[in-house]
Amino acid sequence: MLKEGTRVQLRNILYLTDFSEPSRAALPFAAALARTYGATIHALHVLTPAIPATCPDAVQADEELASAEMAKVESQLADVVHDTGMTKWVPLWPAVEQAIMYQHIDLIVIGTHGRTHAQKLLLGSFAEEIFRRASVPVLTIGPGVQKEIANRGIFRDVLFATDFSKPCQAAAPYAVSLAEENHSRLMLLYVAAEPATSEQGKIGISDVMHGLHDVVPTEARARCHPVAIVKYGKPADRILEVAVERQADLIVLGVRNAAGHLEAATHLDRATAHKVVVQAPCPVLTVRG
């Protein structure tokens, strides 16, 4: 259970963009969160060393194009506190790591494409490294996110999938806070392997229901309208199913880092997190614990 008064504060949001369509789709979410929390957006584009320095004309053209695209981003952030920056000719992760440290980043917002090939889920290479390495929460806007969610500018229905592990405990304050700030319904989901048939199993599910309700502090319950849900089957499938059925605007997952790789806690394994991000009809917030 969260401690009474536990609240998330977002002061600095890092919006990463490569000026692609997925990045453009992510911008309204970064802006909406900045308005909600009174945060500053730090928009960053990383010019990676793809063009040889021996081609100065091409290098200059690439920089000029990036500057023009960043000006478009800045025009869309006119109503929120923001700054923009470009890091030139360095690898992606060192630039992002430096921004996290020096800008005191609390949250990263990123758009990504996704695809399924030979039953292996993949994220866009730009987002993949951030997922694997970022120490702060990451809000990913995948290819299946519905545009009307961004147009609303708020999360009306928040889905938090939990197995009560340490990473999920780290993610819970974000789910509760976002639901509170938006006066949203907070759906608390636990996915079990199979329906309980024995009395002992039924007692276990009863404990799960109590545990789900205990995720939300008493003082927050009137503002986030918690609903406890237990489903059976494969976690990713059930999470996506509930997100569609209950028209979730946001999914929150607790994940753990293992040897530098993004992995979700306990039954929420790495493949589950990837599948949810790639196929979700709404943004997905991953929080490492």
Number of helices: 10
CATH class bucket of the largest domain: Alpha Beta
Give the CA-CA distance, first to last residue. 15 Å
Task: Count all strands and give the number.
Answer: 13
Structural class: alpha/beta
* Beta-strand content: 25-35%
**Measured on Cα atoms, how large is the radius of gyration?**
20 Å
CATH superfamily of the largest domain: HUPs
Major β-sheet profile = 11 strands, mixed
Order of helices and strands: EHEHEHEEEHEHEHEHHEHEEHE
Shape: elongated
- DSSP helix fraction: 40-55%
Structure description:
- β2 (40-47), α2 (56-75) and β3 (82-88) form a beta-alpha-beta unit.
- The protein starts with 11 loop residues before the first strand and ends with a strand.
- It is elongated and about 65 Å long.
- The protein contains 10 helices and 13 strands.
- With 289 residues, the protein is an alpha/beta fold.
- Helix content is 42%, strand content 26%.
- The model is unreliable at 116-123 and 258-267 (pLDDT under 50).
- It has helices spanning 21-37, 56-75, 92-102, 125-133, 147-152, 166-181, 199-214, 221-224, 235-245, 270-279, and strands at residues 12-16, 40-47, 82-88, 107-111, 114-117, 120-123, 138-141, 157-161, 185-192, 226-232, 250-258, 261-264, 284-288.
- The protein has 2 domains: 7-143, 3-Layer(aba) Sandwich (Rossmann fold), CATH 3.40.50; 147-289, Rossmann fold.
